[in-house]
Amino acid sequence: MTRLAFIALALVACSKGADNQQKGASSEQPMVAPTGTEQGRGSMPADPSTGGPADGGGDSFKLKPAEGTLAIEVPAATAGAKVVANIVVTPGAGFHVNTEYPTKLKLETATGVTFAKAELKAGGPSKEKGDAAEMTEQKLHFAVELTPAAAGSYTVNGSFKFAVCDKDQCLPKKEAIAIQVAAK
Fold first, then answer.
1. Could you tell me if 20 and 45 lie in one domain?
2. Which of 12, 54, 102, 112 has its CA 20 to 30 A from that of 82?
3. Residue 169, Cβ density class (10 Å: 0-12 exposed, 13-18 middle, ≥19 buried)
4. CA 25 to chain centre
5. What's this model's pTM, rounded to 2 decimal places?
6. How far, in Å, CA of 99 to CA of 163, rounded?
């Protein structure tokens, strides 16, 4: 019963605030959703079904140059032989990798290229290294083993979810990636 009374009171307060804004006579401050700073260090909005960014990866979830760099390095490949693609996040000055964030690199099937794992994970509350080659506050590195079936150029697409933090807040990121493999 108490919950219903609270919800009803909140709805009335919100509708009055909206009426006042429409009339242009409001002296009240607009309501603002809490940011990472108010929620506490390490807190960030998340989609409960995926553990990733709540908006599915809009521009606000793209890594900005000041926040760090995302590099994909693939050496020359030979048909039928394993090659290792290195996916590396290096945080910018004043930022660090959030090792508690449930980091996930998900690869899509690509014709002509095989890989051992389609989904690589690291991090989380236990700060597990998981599938990462390196996971520290200074560097996040996944080494993805790929094998091109024949000579040619291939693209392995995927999505990469991770987070970087500054002294005030943590920022979840979701980047589309494309691993370009050229095999001889």
1. no
2. 102
3. middle
4. 41
5. 0.68
6. 8
The closest alpha carbon to 121, from 146, 135, 107, 102, belongs to 102
Q: What is the pLDDT of residues 53-76, one digit of tens each?
A: 444 445 779 999 999 999 999 999
Residue 90 tokens read as 């290096």
Q: What is the CATH number of the domain that holds 131?
A: 2.60.40.10
Residue 93 to residues 56, 111, 164, Cα–Cα distance (Å):
26, 39, 11
Largest CA distance in the chain: 71
Q: Supply 11's token pair.
A: 């709805």
| Number of independent structural domains in the chain | 2
Instruction: Say if residue 13 is in the same domain as residue 95.
Output: no
Domain of residue 9 covers: 1-31
- Judged against a pLDDT cut of 90, whether residue 154 lies above it is answered with yes
